[in-house]
Amino acid sequence: MTKLNSKVPEGKLKDKWSNYKAHQNLVNPANKRKIDVIIVGSGLAGGAAAASLAEMGFKVKVFCYQDSPRRAHSIAAQGGINAAKNYPNDGDTIYRLFYDTIKGGDYRSREANVYRLAEVSNEIIDQAVAQGVPFARDYSGYLDNRSFGGALVSRTFYARGQTGQQLLLGAYGALTRQIGLGNIEMYNRSELMDIVLVEGKARGIVTRNLKTGEIKSHFGHAVVLATGGYGNVFYLSTNAMGSNGSAVWKAYKKGAFFANPAFVQIHPTCIPRHGEFQSKLTLMSESLRNDGRIWVPKKKEDAEAIRAGKMRPEDIPDEDRDFYLERRYPAFGNLVPRDVASRAAKERTDKGFGIEKNSTGEGVYLDFKYAIERLGKDAIEARYGNLFQMYEKITDENPYETPMRIYPTIHYTMGGLWVDYELQSTIPGLFVAGEANFSDHGANRLGASALMQGLADGYFVLPYTIQNYLAYEITNPRLNPEEHSEFKKTEEDVKERINKLMSIQGKQSAEHFHRELGKIMWEYVGMARDEKGLKTAIEKIKALRKEFWEDLHIPGSTDTVNPELEKANRVADFLELGELMAYDALNRNESSGGHFRLEYATEEGEALRRDDEYMYVAAWEYKGDDKEPALNKEPLHYEEIEVKTRNYKTA
Amino acid sequence: MSNFINSSIGKKLIMSISGLFLIVFLLVHLTANLFLLGGSDAFNLSAHFMGTNPVIQIMQPVLALGFLFHIVYSLIVQFKNWASRPVKYAKVNQKEASTWVSRNMIWLGIFVLAFLTLHILNFYWKLQFGEIGTVVVNGEKMENAYALVAGLFTEGGTLAYIYSGIYIIGFIALGLHLHHALWSSFQTIGWSNIKWRKILTVIGDIYAILIAVGFSIIPIYFLFIR
Amino acid sequence: MAHKTINIKLRVWRQKDAKSKGGFENYELENISVDSSFLEMIDVLNEKLVSENKEPVAYDHDCREGICGMCSLFINGRAHGPDSLVTTCQLHMRKFSDGETITIEPWRVGSFPIIKDLMVDRTAYEKIMQAGGFVSVSTGGVPDANSVTIPKADADEAMDAAACIGCGACVATCKNSSAMLFVAAKVSQLALLPQGKVEASRRAKNMVAKMDELGFGNCSNTGACEMECPKGISLAHIARLNREFLAANIRG
Predict the structure, then answer these.
(1) How far apart are the two ends of chain C, measured CA to CA in Å?
(2) Which of A164, A201, A331, A460 could form a disulfide with A120 if both were Cys (CB 3.0 to 4.6 A apart)?
(3) Residue ranges making up the domain that contains A460
(4) ipTM of model
């Protein structure tokens, strides 16, 4: 337990961050030029951090697997970004945003980090506006806000249904400017293969050029991972096809602790799956719940008729519709947090009220009929036009006329590499930002908070805290990765792994194993978990992993574009990460946030949290390939907040 | 400045301004030509005025330059455009994306240029360097341009029909060229937005029809009406 | 419920690398669900190829929800295929008929060299953006977000332009391989906002110069880019770019 030092500064909660900044070490301008920082990932956290550090004068190297940093999956976030600006004058404060985030996270996040997040939230909006992010405005010319799940105030800033895109392009602009100025070396189509440690500190990375297959080492005085989440372990998720957990997994295997891997967010409003060859699921923004009402038929026979294609949702009169969120949670209604909304949808479908015309029946309605009656079609189109268009392109159904079909799916991972207050992992010199770390969302993330956290880490937290480390590095000269033995050794390890993958020459594609893993994960480590299922999952994953290393087939060669090799490399890591998630879920004998254990529920079916035993961060330590991981606990203390059972039934 | 002229938008601007200049010229030309419908004296007076007015005389070389810039730059721009796609698509389907005319401005332009050459040989060359009969109108002796036009479209039997046909096809090609040209020139100058694009395309179409029909009336008039 | 399926023939461009000579290969697929996306159909093809120990077709894709701009296929003669306002990843097989032959080519633009099969290198776009596609503001020290009001109409129009995903469909479809719509989207977005106006002249000049230097063709206002743009970005932004560029050069 002594292994984990969260380095939370002394003092009152609201003074901690300013005290930290006032007393931290900084690097002087002349020395900044001598310091290299490696940043892996070019999304909101990575892009913003890279731009900010380069603006300060550090030499930055940025890596992304896509053809451009602008492709990072932050771009897909639709709904908005939270900030405690209180522009609508509805009583928002930094404390309230902090409180909502802690509560929304089911009291499983670190208080000081979350407070800092709320504190810097306002600066993010200022920064984005200065960059030319075209946030929605009202006729006065001032910024507009909307409300999101888990909050009683309107604090969400948005740019149509493309807020993530606009914020990412803002950060990309800043990044791009620094590339043009020569302060950032950008490596596109480059995938991290391993992290290089020298004398226990992160000193660089080994990458594979996805165009040429070249394996190359890069030196940095510090390494920042901003590689996003690992939701694709479930195969089907709202993540991009290339989103992967390999970078954090390599870090874990090099000694960084992995915190709360079981905390996965299931987003309640995605388009249901259509068939076996489905490759990914598309999210419909949570903002839709502002105006859409969620329901399933009250009568089972109606649900059956709909599934059989004999009845249409429009044919069901209002009195035969069960608006189950409004029924169960009168205070928050359709705007309950994501985990609550997701489980409620599962509860209804499990009971036989699902409406999707496939073997699972998994789907519920999100209906805009009432909003259109109240506000008119034009108003709805202005708010959600692009989302409605996207829905229609995918499903061939017009959501202005018939309710949307939605169902929960994997969306975000609250878990990630364990970091201290400075965002430093348990490996000195290895920092983790954005979704890749675990710190701010606890067991469940509120809507519009991912963009906030990514940019908070990238613009305003990491560029400061990393200096507290780098200040001690100024006397360390750059290492030459072409000569240094640790770099060469890591390169050899990487090459050996690639050769091993290529030489299996079995029968099955990487896709096949990924799909199989996804099925195991969704069934046993998905929305509802229990001890038996989790143990089964561990056994099944082990067996599948064995099969993978015996029967994988990768065509082509290693010295060119080889998408199968890329995929296999990522799936190999997912096959290990999935198991760790099951361990974590098994260890946590309670239900909190996105982690729901069937054994720990109230009589009403609500989550039963067990603060006495599980109010800690579970930080897992790698012990070897054939050994069980070791659990380290970081106890959570709440000084400024009274820990309560989450209640969205009454305000 | 040379950066500007050599930039893609700069070259396009030259295309646009020279084009707009030619558009204005066409209107003047058409106005003068429509005097043909007023009979021999009216047209000869108009042609004489055009041939002797000092402003028109000054404008002639400017007009020639306008043509020259428009043609030379169209080729410069076009060769660059072709070079920008060294490997062509095996299959292209732009039916829904753009108009045939907008994609074929260069070919319409080359066709119009060929027609223009013929036209110059038929009229301008003869008026300037050939031997043309004279006529006296209002006591002033002048070249009988009317007879020249009337001759081309009425004399020589089948030849008159061939010439008339060539001219009408030439005018249609010109009209098609103009259909895209007018709004496009304004767009290149930056004088367009979503609202004005609609207005400009309508004006452009009206103008294109006016020019194509206006000029075509002349051979038709000589062949069938007069 | 049984889903409707179709059988299709594919004519796919295969090319080993930038230097090799490429050619079309023919494939046949059966029982493709009409509810599949186009890329899911290619996944099926690729799994089939892998199972036959052949190299799968290399193509770019990532988010599969029409926003990252990575996917880039020229399908049956059209950028992103036979549907409007979608990227290839959002194109669905219901747009094709049973027995149809589908021709799939990469973007064919001199400035976007082919990497392999259907993958192209769009680094040229990166370079254009580096030349000025941003507001030169560093992190911190900026005024409160509501200190400057922006007319809603301007903010909305800026957003229309900002919707560009940088996929390259405009260049791919343009008969002149012109990058004007891409450049215009950024120049127009930032010229409409007070934060971007400050360096609007410099931006227009630098981005156009870089675009020209990289070998893109000249815009001839055919409007094909606008029609094939998955985000429906208007030609009006090109007019604004022309205006900005002209004004910038008049000012000197």
Answers:
(1) 67
(2) A460
(3) 13-25+36-263+414-470
(4) 0.98
